[in-house]
Structures are given as structure tokens and as C-alpha cells.
Amino acid sequence: MNYKKRVIIAIIFVLLILSSSFADAQSAALSTGLTYLQSTQSSDGYWGAASEVPYNAFVETCTVADSLKAINAISPAYATAIQWINTTDVNNSDYLLAKLLSLSQAGIDVSTIRENLLSIKNSAGGWERRDKPA
User: Global pTM?
Assistant: First the structure.
């Protein structure tokens, strides 16, 4: 075997070893992160401070639920979060969009949320700002 082929084989071998150790480290970090998320979820299903319900806690919960779905970490924590998102009443366009995206990814019908979001669209094509639920 010539020198170039040996070098290429050696490089491939080193990359395989590095990628397998990186995957193990990533798996451990992911597992630790999932354990942390499960331990910090409220019994009602949201993440964040109770004083921030539904506002900041709503956005945080949608973000965590979307992340869990993206990494295929469907679990009781995910199901509880989706239930909380689904039953929490929000009217702010940002929160409605977050709700629509999270619930649609969970396979829940979002036509009513979509209609609600479209109903607060203004004549200029933007959305009315509503900081708190009506």
C-alpha cells in the first residue's frame, strides 16, 4: 500500500474514533439535560416561575416542548407540557404563534388558534400588540 493510502486510512480511523467519543459525550450531555428539564417542570406542566404564568413561562414551555419534539424525546414531560400549552389562554400574537407551532407539531388541530391569530391582524398587515390576555 502506498503512503497516500496509508495516510488517508489513518485519518479516517482517527475521525471515526473521535466521532464515536463525541457521540458518547453528546449522549451523556443530552441525557443530563433531559433529566434536568424533567426535574424543573412544574406539576401543572410548565417551565418557569409561577409568577410568570402564563407570560414568560408560556414561551419557555413552548420552547422546551418544541425542543423535546425536535430531538424525539417524547415523554410524560412532553405530554404534560402540550396539555398545559393547549389549555392556557393567551391572546398576544407572539404567544398565539408559539402555541400554534407547538400544538401543530404535536398533531393537535390548530384551526381555532389560526383563526384567532388572523382576527387580530390589522389593516396594515401587521398584528395588534396585546401584552396580556383579554
Answer: 0.72
